[in-house]
From TrEMBL, chains A, B:
<dbReference type="Pfam" id="PF02733">
    <property type="entry name" value="Dak1"/>
</dbReference>
<dbReference type="GO" id="GO:0005829">
    <property type="term" value="C:cytosol"/>
</dbReference>
<keyword id="KW-0808">Transferase</keyword>
<dbReference type="GO" id="GO:0004371">
    <property type="term" value="F:glycerone kinase activity"/>
</dbReference>
<dbReference type="InterPro" id="IPR004006">
    <property type="entry name" value="DhaK_dom"/>
</dbReference>
<dbReference type="InterPro" id="IPR050861">
    <property type="entry name" value="Dihydroxyacetone_Kinase"/>
</dbReference>
<protein>
    <submittedName>
        <fullName>Dihydroxyacetone kinase subunit DhaK</fullName>
        <ecNumber>2.7.1.121</ecNumber>
    </submittedName>
</protein>
<dbReference type="GO" id="GO:0047324">
    <property type="term" value="F:phosphoenolpyruvate-glycerone phosphotransferase activity"/>
</dbReference>
<keyword id="KW-0418">Kinase</keyword>
<feature type="domain" description="DhaK">
    <location>
        <begin position="7"/>
        <end position="329"/>
    </location>
</feature>
<dbReference type="GO" id="GO:0019563">
    <property type="term" value="P:glycerol catabolic process"/>
</dbReference>
Length: 332, 332
């Protein structure tokens, strides 16, 4: 296992210690495994919390910040935080106007966040709602889209929901807007090499020396096909074709696109991909607004990339462009 | 070669096409292999140019932007741009107040940038000066520091020189400040795996399955020792010890620190490293200002990290904190 770490059992704790020390203007750790804003919750504003397993930085905790999330619960690598940690994150996000739970559609996270919602309802009288990200189009068919896993699209939902909450909209309105953003996202990934969970010490899957897998999930969940590595343009064409089959775009439509590295894939290759993505939407006549190219949702040192589209109407575009800041993404 | 690309011969061209398409607010490509600000040079301001081989994004071209560089020449992967491309970059940076050439100390780059300086002097009557980054403490002894290679420290020099130029200081003053910033930087790297130059198609060096190399250069230049991978804290301790031996820090000193991934090493591991870096300077009583943790100077998908320190006085700190923006680093 070629990683720069100490005892694998201390991986998450030491990572969080460095994370908070490096960015004290954005992040505080008021309780173990809970990241919140250093200034605390904003009174009268709907709080937004997320949470999930570690190993995906900047997701999830990195998106705590003004115009984004208010707090986040942090699990072990690729494992759900506990319900107690999630309840604690909700309490730290609560400014008296209710709290939206906004996170990816994974069984353990859903179970624990539901339980956390019951806990804060009973113990703290905090009203909560839920919006699940389910943007990975490969993980289930269009007819059962509610079974899809949440991947990089969540960062658009964080941004848009955060901007809506900043207007002091009420919980129902923030929930509606977050759901609308989540519904507008489509993602697909491809992988070239696995990553290693520190406490396991070995790769979570294997790919042959010249093999790629189309549609693979961020934890190594099986994709659509596994075959010899193809040229970048061919890979991007298939990813865009699959997105368009699920959510068509037409001339005059507006969207944002995220070309995201799963970790090891360098910026150079992401730009080669984005070049083709841009050509595809230029051909359609759809306009890309605020494209994002970089590492926004990763799986540690996994090699591969995801493409996410979000269809924008006037409302979503306005919230996407509203000012926001965290250590990894600043708008305005 | 597991890379997402088309024809390796088109790697740099396609990368630049995507790079400019993704960030049109920061970058334009007025001529092949020249990145400049879309609004052109700023009249009356000293221009700052850099340049070097591709494969290090965001270095070099990514640091073109307000408060940073004005233009940049882009070579093939790990290869110097031509003198003609560098001369063109200088012309695009020229706002009538002279141009500083600010780049890393590599033979090919020095030869071509010197030639470029002569070309623009003769052909365009543009006065130029040079400041070389030579921050890699492992690449030559303290007694021949002028032979050292330039690595991640250059981003501090870009930032500080850019802020000085923004004050409309003259070329001699911008050159003095850039040299002072360059002289204040110390860097050291370590590597776990190599990267692959697309047109070569194979790794530029080999490391055993559980091996690391201390002091390795960003192109795979040999380091100090190669041995079994050590725990993160031990690695960081040795890197900091070596930096301190070259440039001591004392109680009350102020510095910035960059913990930089060479590409594949994820943020999680950088934060584990930063945690230890912070402890070391806390122990000394030196204050870290504006720490940077992330991918600021890479070698594509190389696994490993570098640590850079820059000793700050009031002047350097002021310029470091002045507003600046590019697609990868925003201040103020």
């Amino acid at each position: 296992m070629k990683k720069i770490l100490n005892n694998p059992a201390d991986y998450v704790e030491e990572m969080l210690e460095g994370f908070v020390a490096a960015h004290p203007e954005f992040y505080a750790q008021p309780e173990r495994r809970v990241i919140a804003r250093p200034e605390g919750a904003t009174s009268g504003k709907v709080g937004i919390v997320s949470g999930g397993g570690s190993g995906h930085l900047p997701v999830f905790a990195g998106y705590v910040g003004p115009g984004f999330l208010d707090a986040c619960a942090v699990g072990d690598v690729f494992a759900s935080p506990s319900a107690e940690q999630m309840a604690s994150a909700i309490r730290h996000a609560d400014g008296g106007a209710g709290v939206l739970r906004l996170y990816g559609n994974y069984g353990g996270d859903v179970m624990n966040f539901d339980m956390a919602g019951e806990m804060v309802d009973m113990e703290n009288d905090i009203r909560t709602t839920t919006v699940l990200l389910a943007d990975d189009i490969v993980s289930a068919g269009k007819d059962e889209a509610e079974k899809r896993r949440g991947v990089a699209g969540m960062i658009y939902a964080f941004k848009i929901a955060g901007a809506c909450a900043d207007t002091k909209a009420d919980l129902d309105e923030v929930t509606r807007v977050a759901q609308k953003a989540a519904d507008a996202c489509r993602s697909i990934g491809m992988a070239l090499t696995p990553c290693i969970v520190p406490q396991a010490g070995k790769a979570n899957f294997e790919l042959g020396e010249n093999e790629m897998e189309m549609g693979m999930g961020i934890h190594g969940e099986p994709g659509i096909w596994r075959d010899a590595l193809r040229p970048a343009d061919q890979i991007v064409d298939e990813m865009i074709d699959r997105i368009l089959a699920d959510h068509p775009f037409s001339k005059g439509d507006r969207l944002s696109v995220l070309v995201n590295s799963l970790g090891a894939t360098p910026l150079e290759e992401l730009y080669i991909m984005y070049r083709k993505v841009k050509q595809r939407f230029d051909d359609i006549g759809a306009e890309i607004v605020m494209p994002l190219v970089g590492r926004y949702a990763t799986s540690m040192e996994m090699t591969g990339a995801t493409i996410t589209t979000i269809a924008l109407d006037e409302e979503l575009e306005r919230y996407l462009k509203a000012p926001a800041a965290c250590a990894y993404w600043r708008v305005g």
